[in-house]
Design goal:
This protein has 454 residues and is an alpha/beta fold. Helix 15 crosses helix 16. The N and C termini lie far apart (56 Å).
């Protein structure tokens, strides 16, 4: 096996080892959705025969069983696998025997899973970063795609604060990437080997908050079991409290004390637990307005906001749209059983005009929609969400002049009306509109910018 062949293995996401009988003894999956779809808990995947999980896998066609039988390596084998409960996906793998002297004692397989269109949403929490995924993170600072000055400043802030112990407050609207910031800080810090625990405070029922955050001591009388709270689970690492303002004011007071003292006490316990932990919190509403409206304690705000990071809207960093679009296309290409070669120029132009109220998350969802709709290897206007596709023509308005205008102005108003009409007639298709108007697409773009037809 030469170096180029070894290097090729870095393209794979998963590792699986079986013993000489085909019994699984180790696995490392980048996407635990696979186990969920197989109907298994992580521990249930071990100590069972590799063929027992699938309808269509037998001793004869299993790549691992072939390697165990022949002792020969298999490279880049593609198989469609269907689980016992009917979930199917494409697996591309390379498999190798494990030998002790001349005896085959097991086999190891490196694989990558590819999804079908209807399963694209299962990639939402796919752990790309193999090195860091053991600490519960999916993202590093490399996941920030940015050409804009405003985002470069955010990255600079992340790098500056990562190796301190200060609490951090992140403010950004939904879809701007607050959790990416928190995970990037954790993975740049000296805590990267320890757990990153994330909780959306708005999703916790009020009566369960203290149990979930701080844990519960076992009670033999009421048969209450030991529950390790999230703060204890994060001990040594980082806890990320998203939408922290959703917590009840009384809980916010208790949270403040925990952050100050680094001590918790489980519900029903008489013993303190000392913490070595970093707290990062986030809100999708302006923290100062939350304080003014008494939805966020002022003292908690100042304690959390020792270092504050504000995230811009996507509409404020439109120079990043092309890079983000390419990033998401590459992401889905790596994990879908289909590949897009590019995005049509008209779509990219429209993306740059659109206001993106859902921010980066909406952009990613738009690319996901395109993959579901596409019938070719190019993303076209027909593939993207209708809301975005219709945004150009809906936002085009012909404003009546507020003053008397000269001939030049009248000509421009008439030209503008012709362009608006053709854009509406073609559903915003630039090439077709330009053809009907008898001008080049480049000239049409220039005139649209000139007349602010966005």
């Amino acid at each position: 096996m030469n170096f180029s062949e070894l290097y090729h293995l870095t393209d794979y996401d998963n590792v699986l080892i079986v013993d000489a009988n085909g019994i699984t003894i180790f696995y490392d999956l980048a996407d635990l959705n696979i186990l969920q779809q197989l109907g298994l808990k992580p521990e249930e995947f071990l100590r069972k025969h590799i063929t027992s999980f699938y309808k269509d896998l037998s001793i004869e066609n299993s790549t691992l069983m072939r390697v165990l039988k022949t002792g020969e390596s298999l490279w880049n084998i593609e198989q469609k696998l269907t689980s016992i409960n009917g979930f199917s996906y494409i697996s591309k793998s390379s498999s190798f025997p494990i030998k002790k002297g001349d005896t085959i004692i097991g086999a190891i397989e490196f694989s990558k899973h590819f999804y079908h269109k209807e399963d694209i949403q299962k990639l939402e929490q796919f752990a790309e970063n193999k090195i860091y995924r053991k600490n519960n993170t999916f993202y590093t600072i490399d996941n920030f795609i940015s050409e804009s000055n405003v985002m470069q400043e955010v990255k600079n802030k992340i790098q500056r604060v990562s190796n301190t112990e200060s609490t951090i407050l992140i403010y950004g609207e939904t879809g701007t990437g607050k959790e990416i910031v928190a995970q990037a800080v954790h993975n740049l810090s000296n805590r990267f080997t320890q757990p990153f625990i994330s909780i959306n405070c708005a999703e916790i029922q009020t009566e369960l908050v203290e149990h979930i955050l701080f844990g519960t001591e076992k009670d033999s009388v009421t048969a209450t079991p030991d529950i390790i709270g999230l703060f204890e689970q994060a001990n040594g690492g980082t806890i990320f409290l998203d939408e922290v303002n959703a917590l009840d004011i009384k809980i916010q007071a208790k949270l403040l004390k925990v952050i100050e003292d680094k001590i918790i006490r489980r519900m029903g316990s008489t013993y303190n637990v000392h913490l070595n932990i970093r707290v990062i919190a986030a809100t999708n509403e302006d923290p100062e307005k939350l304080v003014a409206n008494k939805l966020l304690r002022e003292d908690l705000y100042y304690r959390l906001g020792v270092f504050r990071i504000d995230l811009p809207l996507l509409s404020e960093r439109k120079e990043d749209i092309e890079g983000l679009t390419n990033y998401f296309i590459q992401f889905y290409n790596r994990h879908m059983h289909m590949k897009m070669e590019r995005m049509d120029e008209e779509v990219l132009f429209l993306f740059k005009q659109y206001n993106w109220p859902g921010n980066v998350r909406e952009l990613k969802n738009a690319i996901e929609t395109a993959y579901n709709n596409a019938n070719t290897k190019v993303i076209t206007l027909n593939d993207i969400p209708t809301k975005i596709k219709n945004s150009l023509t809906k936002s085009i308005e012909i404003k009546q002049p507020e003053r008397s205008i000269d001939l030049k102005d009248k000509v421009e108003e008439y030209e503008k009306s012709l362009i608006v009409g053709e854009l509406r007639n073609t559903g915003g298709k630039l090439a077709e509109s330009a053809r009907r108007l008898g001008i080049s697409k480049q000239l049409l773009k220039y005139k649209m910018e000139k007349y602010e037809l966005r």
